[in-house]
Write a structure and sequence with these properties.
Layout: H1 8-14, H2 19-22, H3 26-34, E1 43-47, H4 55-60, E2 64-69, H5 72-84, E3 90-94, E4 108-114, H6 123-133, E5 134-145, H7 152-161, H8 180-189, E6 197-208, H9 212-222, H10 224-235, H11 239-253, E7 260-272
Parallel strand pairs: 1-2, 1-4, 2-3, 4-5
Antiparallel strand pairs: 5-7, 6-7
Helix pairs in contact: 6-8, 7-10, 7-11, 9-10, 9-11, 10-11
The structure holds S-adenosylmethionine.
S-adenosylmethionine binds near residues 25, 69, 71, 74 and 119.
Length: about 270
C-alpha cells in the first residue's frame, strides 16, 4: 500500500471527471483564446489546463503549448485529445502551480491560466512561479471567478459552502483571486508593480444539451467540489435541499429555450512581465 500523503488539492480534481463539465465550456475557451493575442510560434504555458479547453485552441492557432495540471486523469485526457486532433505542438504534463520546477526560468512568452491556478493553495507562491517561468516582456493572463458575483460559479460555491464543514484553518479561498487588491498584492510579492497589471470583466458561457436540472446532475456526479458538497449534505440529510437550491439557481440563470446556456462573469487579469 502507498504511504505517500494525500494532497487534498490533487485529490479534489482527480475526483469525478471534470472533462464532463469542460465539454460545456469549449466555445468560450476557443473564443477567449482568440482574443488574448495567441499567435503562431508563441511559447505558451496553460496552467491548470484541465483537458485543454484553452490549450487546444491555442495550439490550433499555431502556438507551442505546454499544458500543466495537477490532476493525472485530466492530463491523460488532454494528451488523448491532442493526439486525436493530430496536434504535435501541444503536450500535457502533471505539475503543481505552487512549484513548477523543473521548468526553467523565463521559458514562456505567455502563461495562461483560466480558472486553473486560482484553485492552487499558496497564492503568493503561485504568482511567483507564474512570473518566474514567463520571459521578460511576456504576459500572464488569468481568468478568475469573482466572490459574491451574482452569476453561476460564485453562486454554486456560495450555496455549496452552506452545506459543507468550514475549511481547515489557514485555507485561502480560491475566490480571493477574483479580488483586484489580492491579485495586485500577490503579483507585487513576485516583483510586478501595479501598473503592469490590468483587469477586465469578461464572460464565459456554459452550454449543455440537456435541461438545467440535468446539468446540475452532471455537477453532482462529476465535479469534485460539488461532489464533496453533496457528500457532506447527505451526511446531514440535506442533499435534497442542496439539489433544489442548485436546480433553482441553474434554471433562473439559463438563457436558452432548447437546452442550457448559462453565462458567468469572471475577472480577466493581464500581467506584463
Ligand atoms: C475549474 S478547472 C479548469 C480547467 C481548465 N482551465 C478549463 O478551463 O477547462 C480547474 C483546474 O485547475 C487544476 N488545478 C487545481 N489545482 C492545481 C494546482 N495546484 N496546480 C495545477 N493545476 C491545478 C485542476 O486539476 C483543474 O483541471
Amino acid at each position: 500500500m502507498s504511504t505517500a500523503p494525500v494532497n487534498p488539492n490533487k485529490a479534489l480534481w482527480e475526483k469525478g471527471d471534470f472533462t464532463r463539465i469542460a465539454e460545456t465550456m469549449r466555445e468560450s475557451g476557443e473564443a477567449l483564446v482568440g482574443r488574448i493575442g495567441i499567435t503562431k510560434g508563441l511559447k505558451v504555458l496553460d496552467l491548470g489546463c484541465g483537458d485543454g479547453t484553452t490549450a487546444l485552441p491555442a495550439a490550433k492557432l499555431g502556438a507551442e503549448v505546454l499544458g500543466v495540471d495537477i490532476a493525472r486523469n485530466l492530463v491523460e485526457a488532454g494528451n488523448r485529445r491532442a493526439a486525436q486532433q493530430g496536434l504535435t505542438n501541444l503536450k500535457f504534463q502533471e505539475g503543481d502551480a505552487t512549484n513548477l520546477q523543473p521548468i526553467p526560468d523565463q521559458t514562456f512568452d505567455a502563461v495562461v491560466s483560466i480558472f486553473g491556478a486560482m484553485f492552487a493553495p499558496k497564492p503568493f507562491d503561485v504568482a511567483k512561479e507564474m512570473v518566474r517561468v514567463t520571459r521578460p516582456g511576456g504576459r500572464i493572463v488569468m481568468g478568475n471567478w469573482i466572490p459574491n458575483d451574482p452569476t453561476l460559479v460564485a453562486q454554486i460555491l456560495r450555496i455549496s459552502s452552506a452545506y459543507t464543514p468550514p475549511p481547515p484553518e489557514g485555507f485561502v479561498s480560491p475566490m480571493t483571486w477574483g479580488v483586484e487588491k489580492n491579485v495586485l498584492e500577490r503579483f507585487g510579492g513576485a516583483g510586478i508593480p501595479a501598473e503592469k497589471v490590468s483587469f477586465a470583466r469578461d464572460t464565459f458561457t456554459f452550454n449543455f444539451k440537456g435541461t438545467p436540472a440535468q446539468f446540475v446532475d452532471e455537477f453532482r456526479a462529476y465535479y469534485g467540489p460539488t461532489m464533496n458538497a453533496f457528500d457532506a449534505a447527505e451526511k446531514n440529510g440535506k442533499a435534497a435541499d442542496l439539489q433544489r437550491e442548485l436546480v433553482d439557481l441553474f434554471t433562473s440563470q439559463n438563457t436558452s429555450k432548447q437546452g442550457t446556456s448559462i453565462p458567468a462573469t469572471f475577472l480577466r487579469v493581464t500581467v506584463t512581465r
